[in-house]
Amino acid sequence: MMAAFETWISSGQVMTLVLGYIAVEIVVLWFLNWRTGKGIPLNRLLSLVAPGLCIFMALRASLLDASPQTIALWMLLSFAAHLYDVRMRWRESKQLQKDRS
């Protein structure tokens, strides 16, 4: 049992499952927003999950013995997505403060 679990992790299949789950979650949340107008808009949802997705892709690449450059690229993309998310939140915060005054 333990050997199967180790193989499942080391083969990257676990990350494929996690990425699939996140993709389903994005689609469900987008659909709920589109259908009801409530929840997180798609652009905000994508900026929210993109850094984590890139980190997961870096982990998956590492598990699959990808080159260090590939892993570094995913990490760099994660950082760029994080900076974009912070920028979006910063703008929203400024807009909220402006609206309150």
Characterise the protein shown here.
The structure is a single chain. With 101 residues, this protein is mainly alpha-helical. It has one domain (2-100). The chain is built from 4 helices and no strands. The longest helix has 33 residues, at 68-100. The model has no long low-confidence stretch (mean pLDDT 92).
Taking pLDDT < 50 over at least 5 consecutive residues as the criterion, the unreliable ranges are none
> How much is the average pLDDT?
92
Shape: flat
What percent of residues adopt helix (DSSP H or I)?
Answer: over 70%
Most strands sheet: none
Strand residue percentage: under 5%
Total of helices: 4
Rg computed from alpha carbons, rounded to a whole number of angstroms: 17 Å
What class would the helix/strand composition place it in? mainly alpha
Q: What count of structural domains?
A: 1
